[in-house]
Design a protein that fits this description.
alpha+beta, 279 residues, 54% helix
Length: 279
């Protein structure tokens, strides 16, 4: 086996098989459960083997990229892209960005906003739902504390429930601190937290209007005729007609094209006016 495609496949399979078990073992330890010593030793030995395999494959790919003339940064980026699936990379990145948004939210800061930009919030339709979900998560955590008689199980679920509460807050914080942005030159940045980010240049805008709709479906829905709906709280309020198809990236990495974009803004008239009359 070498560091080529076969080595990459073996490394991916090994990581996919071992990491869930390591996560389960970590939860057990945090919860206070003490597996037999041979289980811990075997698990750690297996993880060590997988880490060594990953390191060997990463080094082989890095050396190959350097031999082809790439600098150190480009070689490492190419190596990570080769070994780690794009779905895994994007999920980890989304979660890290969401967690980082908590600190930005506390400081009342925003991401990607420059002096002179107009920001457009879009969290209005979902705020009550997010806080309701947070309340339910807290009630569930407290309720399970009284219903589950086994301390080890209770501690494990407590860790997961607390992380769920933090994640709900982080997702909402990402939406608050990453608003839509209209630049002075008429360009538009359409976002949804850390999950969606699309830059629309001013020369791609054919028309824009306030257009309230109440579609049903997932956060991102693309019709067969190229109409993209970015749905917040089961509604959109702005329709953006493009003069050419624009590519966009879904949260898990798939790239598609849209020629019409419908999205939500809490104050759609201000956003439409700013796009029609750039500074």
């Amino acid at each position: 086996m070498n560091g080529g495609p076969r080595g990459v496949r073996v490394a991916r399979v090994a990581a996919a098989a071992v990491l869930p078990g390591e996560l389960a073992l970590t939860v057990c330890l945090v919860a206070g459960a003490r597996p037999p010593g041979w289980v811990l030793a075997g698990a750690e030995a297996l993880v060590l083997v997988v880490l060594l395999l990953e390191a060997w494959v990463l080094r082989s790919l890095y050396v190959t990229a350097r031999a082809r003339g790439a600098d150190r940064k480009a070689a490492w980026q190419a190596t990570v892209r080769e070994v780690v699936p794009v779905t895994v990379r994007r999920l980890i990145l989304h979660e890290l960005r969401a967690l980082a948004s908590l600190g930005r939210w506390v400081r009342r800061g925003t991401h990607g906003v420059r002096p002179g930009d107009l920001t457009a919030a879009y969290t209005g339709p979902q705020t009550a739902m997010m806080y309701g979900l947070l309340f339910v998560s807290v009630v569930e955590t407290v309720g399970l504390a009284f219903l589950i008689p086994w301390p080890a199980v209770h501690r494990g679920l407590l860790v997961l429930d607390l992380y769920g509460v933090v994640l709900v807050l982080a997702l909402h914080a990402a939406c608050v601190t990453r608003p839509h942005v209209v630049r002075p030159d008429g360009s538009l940045r359409i976002r949804y937290g850390a999950l969606f980010d699309l830059a629309v240049p001013p020369d791609a805008v054919a028309s824009v209007r306030v257009d309230r709709r109440y579609p049903e479906g997932r956060l991102i829905a693309l019709s067969e005729d190229g109409v993209l709906d970015l749905i917040v709280g089961s509604q959109t309020s702005v329709t953006l007609q493009l003069n050419r198809p624009l590519p966009f990236t879904r949260p898990l990495g798939r790239t598609e094209e849209a020629h019409t974009i419908r999205f939500h803004a809490d104050d759609p008239r201000a956003l439409v006016s700013a796009l029609r009359q750039p500074a």
